[in-house]
Each structure stands twice: as C-alpha cells, then as structure tokens.
Amino acid sequence: MTADPHAFGPADESRGSTTSQGMGAGPANGESPGGEPTAGQPAVGEPSTDGDSSAQGGEEKEESRELDISSPAKVMRIGTMVKQLLEEVRNTDLDEKGRERLAQIHRRSIDELEDGLSKELVDELERLDLPFDSTDGPPTTSELRVAQAQLVGWLEGLFHGIQTAIMAQQAMARQTMAQLPPGAVPPGARPQSDRDERGPGNYL
C-alpha cells in the first residue's frame, strides 16, 4: 500500500526536514529517500516471508517427487484387487493349491505396482515386502493374511499421502492468489484481453 504524499500536513514535512538536516540521517533501510518502501524490499518492521515460502515450496516439491505415480489408474486397480483378495483370505479356508496361487498373485501384484511407482516408492516397498519361506511348501493362511494386510495398508497410506499433497498444493495456490494485487495475472496464466471479454461477436 503506497502512502499518499498529501496525507501529511506541513508540520510533518518540516519535522522530517529538520530531522534529516540536524542529525544527518539518510533513508531508513528498505525505504526510498521519499520515505516510501523500496520495491522488492520489505519495509522496516515488516517480517520477510521469502525464506519460509522457499523452504516450504522445496519440501512440497520433494514430497511430490517421492509420491510420483506414472500410472495412477493401474495402482488403483491393483489396490482394489489386493483388498478384495484379503477379504477372500479372511472368509475362506484355502487349501494348499489356493495358498500357493495367492502367494504368486501377491508377488505378481507387487511387480505390477512397481511399474507405476517412482524409484523412491519402489525401494520402500521392496524393503517392507518380506519373502515367504517356501522351504516347507506354500505359505500358511496366516502368513498370507499378514502379507496382504500389509500391502493393503501401505497402499492406503500412499493414497492418503497423495491426497494430502494435492490439498497442500491447492492451499499454496490459494495463498498465492490472495497475495496478488487486484487485476494481477497469476504466474503461468494468460492475461484476458478485451476481445476475450467481448467474445467473437456476429462475425468471425
């Protein structure tokens, strides 16, 4: 907000002149010789938020990169399938062939998930996914339940993290819009011309 130069009376002008000549004081930090804040510099006593905004933006970019998913629809399909299989394991007493089949599906599901995830997410999933002990045959029903429940929980946490990142980006966009002066165009947006407002009219 730019100060009105006519808002101060003669007494204010004379007092400012006396102070400048008597004490030899130059313009304050962040102010022009006229006493107004210099463009691009915060006024005296006004906290600067550039560092905080940059740090917050860097953290959000890092989090967004870690949650990068190249095939979100595929990840959603596999997640739904794994959750349904977990319900089947809970409600069905599987025989040896069924447990062997489910163990293969579990491994194949993880392989397919890794095709649509970022490297950071793939590494995390590989660290958490413990292989079944196949020395005594296929895994037990309890082992399959634990493995499936672990994968379902991990996927639900992934989806929650994505939703949180999207909400944070939307909040940052709203904050940026609120800080813009009236009539300013957000970065990356195309300014609207008078022709756009009038429309094409009767003749093109």
Structure description:
Residues 1-73, 179-204 are annotated as: Disordered. Pfam families: BPA. The structure is a single chain. Helix content is 61%, strand content 0%. The radius of gyration is 31 Å and the shape is elongated. It has 204 residues and is mainly alpha-helical. The chain is built from seven helices and no strands. It has a domain at 71-173. The model is unreliable at 1-26 and 45-49 (pLDDT under 50).
For the sheet with most strands, the description reads:
none
Structural class: mainly alpha
- Count of helices? 7
Principal-axes geometry comes out as elongated
Low-confidence stretches: 1-26, 45-49
Percentage of residues in strands: under 5%
Keywords: Proteasome
Family: Belongs to the Bpa family.
Protein name: Bacterial proteasome activator
Pfam family, one: BPA
Name a few traits of the molecule.
204 residues; 61% helix; elongated; disordered N terminus
Element layout with pairings:
Layout: H1 10-23, H2 50-66, H3 72-91, H4 96-115, H5 119-128, H6 141-179, H7 194-198
Helix pairs in contact: 3-4, 3-6, 4-6
In short:
With about 200 residues, the chain is mainly alpha-helical.
